[in-house]
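Bug report (template v2)

What were you trying to do?
Predict the complex of my protein with heme C.

What happened?
Run completed; filing so the output is reviewed.

Input:
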Amino acid sequence: MKNHKNAAMLARATAVALGAASAYVLAQGAAQPTPSERAIEYRQAVFKVVAGNFGPLSQNAQGKIELPAPAARKYAERLAAVADFTRDAFPEISREGKTRAKPEIWTDRAEFDKLVADLNTQSRALAAVTARADAKPEEFKAAVGAVGNACKSCHDKFREK
Ligand code: HEC
């Protein structure tokens, strides 16, 4: 008798718990971004990290902030590393949604990929300059300028205003 009562209580408790669990799963499901939203958010996050590391280098090249050599090298190395992430930040699935990426990226892919490659080449060149103790300020400025041009060329052509 006692066992039966316990079993019934357990069954009720389980039913309540499962009900709560499925309600939770449903609520989570509604809040989850779609694969497309996720891919777009990922890309925008990658560019935030790109900008977060290029920003101090650019400001330093313009004489707006001081940047000790080891810090410049750190930012430049991170920029070169994260620039590589942009290569696969534009999957087909991320074409439509809350994005400023222009549709031409997917119709003019060869041209777009050239600009991605250029960002990578210029970022690595900048990292190489910051790694050299004998690099002149002019070399640093030129390398930062080349990266800045790589950003701008792509934004002008492939990013919505
Ligand atoms: C090959 C093309 C390309 C290059 C090179 C490029 N960008 Fe972008 N960038 C884009 C596109 C496209 C977007 C729009 C992404 C979106 O909205 O999904 C973007 C978005 C951004 C954003 C906004 C991110 C957000 O919060 O939504 C920042 C900041 C940014 N880029 C900075 C930079 C900087 C700094 C560089 C150079 C160091 C750079 N980008 C190089 C194409 C490029």
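What did the reviewer find?
The mean pLDDT is 89. Residues 119 and 150 are 5 Å apart (CA to CA).
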